[in-house]
Automatic annotation (TrEMBL):
Main location per the UniProt record: plastid
GO molecular function terms listed in the Swiss-Prot or TrEMBL record: protein-lysine N-methyltransferase activity
Keywords: Chloroplast, Methyltransferase, Plastid, S-adenosyl-L-methionine, Signal, Transferase, Transit peptide
Biological process per Gene Ontology, one example term: methylation
Organism: Ceratodon purpureus
Name recorded for this polypeptide: SET domain-containing protein
Domain SET as annotated: residue spans: 70-295
Location within or outside the cell: Plastid, Chloroplast
GO-annotated cellular components: chloroplast
Signal peptide start-end: 1-19
Classification lineage: Eukaryota, Viridiplantae, Streptophyta, Embryophyta, Bryophyta
Length: 504
């Protein structure tokens, strides 16, 4: 049975990597020419870490302490990842280990008080802060110079990859996300060039405020800000943002906490203001690196896009790692479906839309909501009576269980066809990816690409197995008609119709 639904899976979402790369390249050529691009060279440094010398580290810490940063139990230090925070004494889970006053943050209030304040009024918070970050980075006398000197110059998020490196993401949803973000950034950059920069060239030197600088600032903000200082409260917090990610840590109790500094010993005699307090997310011994969880709900694709690394499912000192393999599957009811209006009404009543995205972590299979959405999407022919106004409020409940053999078979075959097409969109197989991951000289970016595409394929392979098994059990399922008869007392537990004529 044909199914009036579009499966927007990775391989169907694009015509291959070439289409994405050429589209992105065309977008870059549309940048305002007066603000030239400077291409950043690839690097294997990780975006979630700073890179610096021991002298820079000491300069940063001395500067931070002079600015009122408090943290007797920690010290910034060079670590395997770049820079991090080391425990100077045993630290217990939940201990407050660092306090950074708002006067040290780089946020919208900072921008408003600067020379860019007036011309950046009305801009999105992140855009204003990004422009300020570029401005201060080029200012040798910046108040934040010791902090800015430790920020990584090159980032490993796919937003900074070459076209050749992006080709390794062929078929993945991450590639689509990267291209979407690049187009978004280019649009934002062109807009700010036209509305702000070209009108204030005394403040915005075209040689400094390039698209690559703007993209770099976006990458810094995306990789070094954490709740609660995100969104409109977005802020860069020196020293606190040196905490690296820890595999296996949970984030039930956030590491970052914003509160008032009023009443703190070091604040006596000063006006009350906000302060960021950092809490230890686990127990750490003296000399150990203090780590935090960057987001337990993030997939490897999210980690790659935000921070430029992926997390293998390995054991750590904090226990087993979190399952990071995931697939964001988009399902859409075709606008040409003859019952589109009825289905849209039912979806709206139940808090859904005709186009939905379902996040599918590896090992969990399709969610009940996804299967219910599929059944509703496939309703047609004799089953379409469930779309009548009489059933409108109960329809979602009816399709939460198998409707008919044809309906159930239709969603299985359609999903299998879509999954096969999506898997064909990748340039490698699961076995080939596993072999690549075993190579000793694998670069950071190649590892990211392989881990992400392998994770997506594993989830799709699991979905294939699930829907294939579903096809095999179609004859053993109970459908709407049988359930209705049973509820009316016209069918017994053995599946036989009860007598129409009752004995006297």
């Amino acid at each position: 049975m044909a199914m009036a639904m579009a499966l927007v899976a990775p391989g169907l979402q694009c015509g291959g990597c070439a289409a994405f790369v050429s589209s992105s390249a065309r977008g870059r050529l549309q940048l305002k020419k007066s603000f030239a691009r400077i291409v950043l060279s690839p690097s294997n440094s990780r975006v979630h870490c700073s890179v610096g010398t021991e002298t820079q580290v000491q300069t940063l810490w001395s500067w931070a302490q002079a600015q009122g940063v408090q943290g007797e139990s920690i010290r910034p230090s060079e670590v395997t990842e770049g820079l991090g925070l080391l425990a100077q004494r045993p630290v217990g889970q939940g201990d407050e280990i660092l306090s950074v006053p708002e006067t040290v943050w780089i946020n919208l209030a900072t921008v408003q008080k600067s020379s860019l304040g007036k011309v950046t009024e009305g801009l999105k918070s992140w855009v204003a802060i990004a422009l300020f970050l570029i401005h201060e980075t080029s200012n040798s006398n910046s108040k934040w110079r010791p902090y800015l000197d430790t920020l990584p110059k090159n980032l490993d998020s796919p937003l900074f990859w070459s076209d050749e490196e992006l080709a390794e993401l062929q078929g993945t949803q991450l590639l689509g996300s990267v291209v979407g973000y690049l187009e978004f950034l280019e649009n934002e950059y062109n807009k700010v060039v036209e509305e702000i920069m070209e009108r204030n060239t005394d403040l915005f030197d075209p040689a400094v405020f390039t698209f690559d600088a703007f993209r770099w600032a976006f990458g810094i903000l995306r990789s070094r800000s954490f709740a609660p200082l995100t969104g409109e409260e977005l802020a860069l917090v020196p020293v606190a943002d040196l905490m690296n990610h820890g595999v296996g840590l949970d984030d039930k109790n956030p590491s970052w906490l914003k509160k008032s500094s009023g009443g703190q010993i070091w604040n006596i005699g000063k006006s009350s203001s906000n302060v960021l307090t950092v809490r230890a997310s686990a127990n750490f011994q003296s000399g150990e690196q203090i780590l935090m969880q960057y987001g337990s709900a993030k997939s490897n694709a999210d980690l790659a896009l935000d921070y430029g690394f992926v997390e293998p499912n390995t054991e750590s000192q904090f226990g087993g790692g979190i399952e990071r393999d995931s697939l964001a599957l988009s399902l859409e009811i075709s606008p040409e479906d003859r019952f589109i209006d009825d289905k849209a009404d039912i979806l709206e009543i139940n808090g859904f839309q005709c186009s939905m995205q379902f996040d599918l972590p590896r090992g969990q299979g399709p969610s009940d909501e996804m299967i219910t959405f599929l059944r509703l999407s496939a309703l047609s022919g004799p089953d379409s009576f469930l779309l009548e106004a009489l059933f409108r409020n109960e329809a979602w409940g009816h399709v939460s269980l198998p409707v008919s053999r044809d309906n159930e078979e239709g969603i299985c075959t359609s999903m299998l066809e879509g999954l096969r097409a999506a898997l064909d969109g990748y340039s490698t197989t699961i076995e080939e990816d596993l072999e690549i991951l075993g190579q000793e000289d694998l670069s950071v970016r190649k590892e990211i690409a392989v881990v992400v595409r392998l994770g997506e394929k594993r989830v799709m392979q699991e979905l294939q197995t699930w829907f294939e098994a579903r096809l095999e059990e179609l004859d053993s399922l109970e459908y709407y008609a049988e359930r209705r008869l049973r509820n009316l007392g016209l069918m017994d537990d053995g599946g036989y119709m009860t007598p129409w004529v009752f004995n006297e």
